[in-house]
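Dear V.,

Thank you for sending over the compound details. I've combined the ligand you provided, zinc ion, with the protein sequence from our construct and run the structure prediction for the complex. I'm sharing the raw inputs here so there's no ambiguity about protonation or stereochemistry in the SMILES, which I know was a concern on your side last time.
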Amino acid sequence: MHRRRARAASCYCTAMSTRAMTVASLVLLLACAEVPQGPVRVQALVLSADGAYTPTTVELRTVRDATALEGSVFRFLGGARLVVDGNDPELQQAITEEDMARAVLKGKGQPVTANYIVAEDGVLWPADFHTWNLVTAAFGLERASEYFHTVAQVPPGELGTATVYYFPEFLLPGSVEGPVRDNAIFYTLVQGFLLLPFDRLQSAPMAINTGLLAHEYSHLVFNRRVYGGRRLPEAFTEWSAGTVTPGLNVLKSLDEGLADFHAFGATCLSPGGCNSRFLEASLGESARVRDMAQSHCLTAELRTGLLNSAYTQFGPSSGDYQVGTVLASALHRAAAGDAARQQALGRAVVAAYSDESPETPGLVQLVEASLDAQAGFTLTDAVRALLVHVEDAALRADACHALVDQLQLNVDALAGVCAPDVGAPTLCPALDG
Ligand SMILES: [Zn+2]
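Below is the predicted structure of the protein with zinc ion bound, written out as structure tokens.
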């Protein structure tokens, strides 16, 4: 009964942003109507080619229920409560990773209720701020999923339906005072996305930044393929206790850098076009350091950190993001602004996540082979796995050159994949050793 009532369009406009209010005023004369089931055309705030978020009619192709925002790609839940507290007896007593997830998820939340005005042409217009935010987030996640299906050729059904915790209360007592805000996270422990409330970041809420959501969605794909969908990946539990964690540092750098690379690829499918600076709309100019279209080189300091520090130091100093940006930048350079090359590299990267062939092992196979000794999982071996999955010889040669140059790799260690003379640096001064 409740669900039936919820599907009727709501004809009121409360708590709306000024922009949404202006837009909604254009359709006030339209009558209320039932919100249709199945794929719908909705208005969302989409980044246009001129760099502004503009109300735009888009199609949500995978939804079954537009009011609850449920479909094959996502299921939104509001009002969840997550607490990660080392002093929590429930967490301390947890044995399995499922126990841990249950201990952290103090409140599971409930389906959201989106409010729409149904226009005469059948387009649904969000009737309040949260509906604009929700619908646009749904659009971003759906397009990210489409990128992985169409460009990276991930079979339909492999990624499953992701739970999206919308504006949950996320508490980290002991490390963060009060609820965590201003972030969007794929949280492996609960196998879902956290779209956190915003506070300081008000220019473009993360939930409407489709590039940023594609970055997070890429973490889901990496988790499914490289970590086998585990809440606590084995590499984390096996490797994190080391005083130096070179394998873990490489793995996290790959996860971040490849997420940015895929996110860029996903922006190329959006109305605003390819955008290597997609983070800046939400995070401001401080995010410019992750613009992969700029020249980035592995520094001696980063290389030392990668090889000789624990992730507890490397991660908090954003070493993984920095190495990841160098990786993304090299792949971006190899793509050279060509759509077919960009897509071929995106496909090769995802194919390299898992490959059981002994001649061309994927990342998960390399990780498994080094679980007892993480120093065996190296950046060079990971790059080899990416390169052997690039089918086009000319593209592979260009990728070899850019990766060897920018990540300061020893080309001899890539014998059989890269030509011996491909390594002469043209962008980054060679480091000693
Ligand atoms: Zn990330």
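A first observation: The CA atoms of residues 257 and 325 lie 5 Å apart.

Warm regards,
I. M.
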